[in-house]
Amino acid sequence: METTNLLAVITFAMVTAFTPGPNNLMLAASGANFGFIRTVPHIAGITIGFMTVFLAASAGLAKLFAALPQLYDLLKVLSVLFLIYIAWRIGSAGRTKRSDRDRPLSFTQAALFQAVNPKGVSVIFSTVSAYTTDVDSLASEISVLLTVFVLTTIGATTSWCLFGTAISRIFITRRKLRLFNVTMAFLLILSLIPIIFN
């Protein structure tokens, strides 16, 4: 891959990975409510799930969605429903004493969500379509793209979780933490607007 293309990919990956989206907002809320260590499986699930979807798209899944747009629409509906449920969980966290059922997203839940995360799926399909240019060197180009996106994903998810963890030290009282949770839930619902109307 040429240097100019590589720089473009890195810039694109940084912008898409670090800007607020469903994954990042959920991680900030999880960091604030459960701390960094307990959120590590969530971070790992996002990374592995993203890698899996990326490899599937590289293997031709993007063409399947292009041929069957209703399949993508179905995934979008599932994603919106899941995110509304997560927003409710975040918004209601901290209202009562924490129970055994209050826990961060598991590795499996976070990994499976990447398959229906419209922001992530759109980024992956755009990347594979735009930045793979040569059939003969497709495997090496995919390797470079995957490496860039995995590194930026790890950096972004870790940063957002640490941000949430730091915020929890500011919002020491239960009332302040509840306000933070409601704000994160509201922002998560707001992040669905482009998904719904796109």
What's the structural blueprint in terms of helices and strands?
Elements: H1 3-18, H2 22-34, H3 36-67, H4 69-92, H5 107-113, H6 118-131, H7 138-170, H8 174-190, H9 192-197
Helix pairs in contact: 1-7, 2-3, 2-4, 2-7, 2-8, 3-4, 3-5, 3-6, 3-7, 4-8
β-strand amount: under 5%
What structural class results from the helix and strand content? mainly alpha
Number of domains: 1
Percent of residues in helices: over 70%
- Mean pLDDT figure: 81
Overall strand count: 0
List keywords for this structure.
globular, 0% strand, 9 helices, mainly alpha, 198 residues
Task: Please outline what is shown here.
With 198 residues, the chain is mostly helical. The chain is 82% helix and 0% strand. It is built from nine helices and no strands.
Task: Please explain how this structure is put together.
With 198 residues, this protein is an all-alpha fold. It has one domain (3-193). 82% of the residues lie in helices and 0% in strands. α2 (22-34) runs antiparallel to α3 (36-67), α2 packs parallel to α4 (69-92) and α3 (36-67) crosses α6. 35% of the residues are buried.
